[in-house]
Write a structure and sequence with these properties.
By secondary structure, the protein is α/β, with parallel strands linked by helices. The protein has helices spanning 40-46, 64-67, 70-78, 95-102, 161-166, 174-178, 217-221, 240-245, 251-260, 282-286; strands spanning 3-8, 22-27, 30-34, 54-58, 86-91, 112-117, 122-125, 133-139, 147-155, 183-184, 190-191, 201-209, 227-231, 266-269, 292-293, 299-302.
Length: 303
């Protein structure tokens, strides 16, 4: 099961009790990190997460509160004796920012592979983490090029060992069959996965969007998410026009998107530093989307 931790929930600048928004998703000992603002490596320590497990970093955009933690985090990774390459994905156009941040950590003991993403929807398989994990990116509507990300983890159907035994399939072939591969046995028989597996299981979907106006495209992108993580700068509806002008959204906007996307649950994040008590808006928000959570730093769940 993927283990998910919202390392921080703040926007713009960190507070003494609120780190900048960053999401850690771990599966089978390997992890994806989305965004890396100032202090992210400290948030790792505070929430007892192992940054050494990061295989991929996804950056939504190059504003300081989403990227300035990269140098410290990469240097800390180097001190963990890492030698395997690390992949960083970000919207094309932010190369200068990312590369400039990396100049202060140019003696890393591991390669950093940069992957600029064209500003259009794109998906790829995260083989280094799990071949069943697909990462999707979609342009959102901020003042600058910014991406939302969705992680889709397909689950293998249940393997039926009794069925495999009944067909006299040697144990060494079970793993390939469970992975969806047909096998040819020593006696010449070909066995298909469907002969030894049960019904397919529902995929797990995690969607993360922040620093964006509440555009309808997000509804399709987050559709049927088990966990939708979305920014909610303020809960005061009087600030809606101001937030939309700046390329952001309110908590109420996030709730409407979650409702229209039929998400299982919503975690709010990227609160304004002026929004000191976001929990005050909970009862109003639950009227729009009952499964909303006023996230706090360290919010976590296993799906």
């Amino acid at each position: 099961m993927p283990d998910i931790c919202l390392l921080g929930t703040g926007g713009m600048l960190p507070l003494k009790n609120r780190f900048l928004t960053s999401l850690f998703v771990e599966y089978n000992g390997k992890a994806v990190l989305i965004d890396c603002g100032e202090g992210t490596q400290v948030a790792f320590a505070q929430h007892e997460r192992k940054l050494s497990r990061i295989e991929m970093i996804l950056i939504t955009h190059g504003h300081a509160d989403h990227v300035t933690g990269l140098p410290g985090l990469l240097l800390s990774l180097g001190n963990c004796s890492r030698t395997e390459p690390l992949d960083i994905y970000y919207p094309a156009g932010w190369e200068r920012v990312i590369k400039n941040l990396l100049t202060v950590c140019d003696c890393l003991p591991f390669p950093v592979n940069l992957h600029p993403l064209e500003y259009q929807p794109v998906s790829w398989t995260a083989d280094k983490i799990d071949p069943m994990l697909t990462v999707s990116a979609m342009p959102v509507d901020h003042r600058v090029p910014c991406m939302g990300y969705s992680l889709m983890l397909r689950k293998k159907p249940v393997f039926l060992p009794e069925q495999a035994k009944a067909l006299e399939i040697p144990v060494q072939f079970w793993k390939k069959l469970h992975q969806g591969e047909a096998v040819t046995l020593p006696d010449g028989r070909t066995v298909c996965p469907e002969q030894v597996t049960g019904d397919s299981r529902k995929s797990i979907k995690i969607t993360y969007t922040t620093d964006t106006r509440p555009i309808p495209e997000i509804v399709n992108f987050a559709e049927d998410s088990d966990l939708f993580i979305c920014e909610g700068m303020y809960g005061d509806t009087d600030k809606k026009e101001s937030m939309n002008q700046k390329g952001h959204m309110l908590m109420q906007d996030a709730c409407r998107l979650a409702d229209e996307a039929h998400a299982e649950r919503l975690w709010l994040t990227h609160y304004s530093p002026a929004e000191m008590n976001p929990e005050n808006w909970l009862s109003d928000l639950q009227k729009i989307f009952p499964a909303v959570v006023i996230s706090k730093d360290g919010e976590n769940i296993s799906l």
